[in-house]
Input
Amino acid sequence: MDKPVELSKIHNITISGRIASGATTLAHHVAKELHWEVLDGGKLFRAFSKDHGYAEGRPDQFDLEYEEKIKDLLKNQKHQIVQSHLAGFDAQGIEGVLKILVVCEDEENGEDKADIRIDRLANRDTSSVEEAKREVFERETQNLAKWRRLYANGDANWVNWDKKYYDLVVNTFSHNQEESLALVLETIGLKGKKDEQAK
Output
């Protein structure tokens, strides 16, 4: 395994985004460049659920404990790319964490391109468009309802993709995979170095 790339002020990176925004793809591309480990929030959450004996109907305390584990990881580990919906929100106030938000939206009006996210999900999971719609809209609605109650005092306007929580926003509607990766590399100071090495 290649030695992890050391970044002077960044110890870990979080990558968050709405369902099928492109966060997972970006996380793996960045990890390949840095030789860091990707921690997939969905897989971590399911493993944590299984360890605690919860399949469905988990109590609120479980969510709170899980998010505390993510915070602890970000504080005490290095060279991790944590990709999950709440990773950037969890990282508030933790030093050495670059918080990236991935969106898929019209840059002019900020409108979410849900149709593109649905299409991506259907193609990725080889599911029907109707199934992808349910996944995008129903799961997002359910998650928000719970997270607003747990983390935002029931604020009906709170969303975990609020740009104020992030250091960098990558728009996969206006940027392809290579351009999205280049934005991250430039932000962490690697793009210039890699260009010089290639000459």
Observations:
- Confidence is low (pLDDT under 50) at residues 194-199.
- Residues 129-151 form the longest helix (23 residues).
- The beta strands are 12-17, 37-40, 80-83, 97-103, 168-171.
- The longest strand covers residues 97-103.
